[in-house]
Amino acid sequence: MPVVYTRHDAGYTDSATGSYGLKLTGGPWGRANNALGLANGAITVSNNVLTGQDGDEPAAEVYYRWQMGENLGLAADGHYLTNLGRPMNRDEAVFGIGAPADF
User: Fold this and answer.
1) pLDDT tens-digit series, residues 55-78
2) Considering just the CA atoms, what is the radius of gyration of the chain in Å?
3) pTM of the complete model
4) How many angstroms separate the CA atoms of 53 and 55, rounded?
5) Are 41 and 62 contacting, i.e. CB atoms less than 8 angstroms apart?
6) Are 51 and 66 within 8 A, CB to CB?
C-alpha cells in the first residue's frame, strides 16, 4: 500500500499528513471494469488556531465506480471525518456522486 508523509511548518502550525488506500477491481464479482476503493488518512496539527488543542484529524473514504459504458462511469463516495480542529468538536460525513467520462 502506498504511504504519503509530508511535513509543513507555517510558523503558527506544525502539521504532518499520512494516507493509504486500496482499490479492488470488480473481477471477483463479475464486473471487471468496476472498482471499489477504501482509503484512510490523517493530518496531525499542533497549536490549533481555533481550539488551542493539538491532535489528529483522521478521515476515511469508501467509493464504488460503476463502468456504464466504454467512456462513461458513475461513482459514489463517502467520507467520514473525525476530531476536526474547530470549536464544535463533532464528526462529519460527506457523500458525493460523480460521472467520470472520457471524451
Assistant:
1) 778 899 999 999 999 899 999 999
2) 17
3) 0.68
4) 7
5) no
6) no
